[in-house]
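Provenance and format

Records in this collection were gathered into a single text stream. Each protein contributes a sequence line and a token line. The two records reproduced below are adjacent in the stream.
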Amino acid sequence: MLDPKMFEELGARLSSIIAASPAADIEKNARALLASVFAKLDLVSREEFDIQTQVLQRTREKLKALEARLDHLENPPEPPDPAA
């Protein structure tokens, strides 16, 4: 039967070989490159996006109410004709 310690030892050796290989450097460089690219982009978090969506919705509602109020002030309803 195979010894579990042998597998652990093999796993540890493979991990140390990969850590010391150029593959680890490539991964680090790729992560740094991606982080740099994302930092240059003008991105916002989902939370900030949702907050701004709510602000925009409230602003639209206020604008609609103000437009209705302005329309009412500029075009008041006709008073009923008492002679009719």
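Adjacent record:
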Amino acid sequence: MKVVLIFDQGLAGAGGKSNPNVGLTAVKGGIGSSLMLEPHFEKIGAQVAATLYCGNEYFQNNEEEVVKKMTAMAKKVNPDFVLCGPCFNYPDYARMAAMISTSILENTDIKSCAMMSVENGDTIAAYKDKTPILKMPKKGGTGLNDSFADLCEFMKCSVEQSAELENVRNRVCY
């Protein structure tokens, strides 16, 4: 399974709060926080083909452009699945992830989801009917490995169009 990751500058390893204006960037393979996902992805035969990212401030100043370009970039890579997150409890990143995942689902045939903690309630409420939003703990919370296992189960069922998808979705999404 070929996967594209959508990160903010922090998860990409391109600078946290000190570098919020990082422009739209595409990198082949996984970078930054993709390392924490790799052991889970290996269990389902998933490999990160590319990581797309930008800074939170850059996104806020260029929302339409970023959503459109990230959707087009994902389409060009042609993965089986696009993961927008994990966003933890970062509200700006969560909103960006939900918007991009929604666009990918509406404008391509690629499977996608966003992943964030319950602290992003406004974004969850606004987007949960437009894109799957998977549950995860806030940064520093317990249960991260379990949420990644749920993510992989969801990804596998989505890509394989498994009959179990609806049951998994009801269990792991908001």
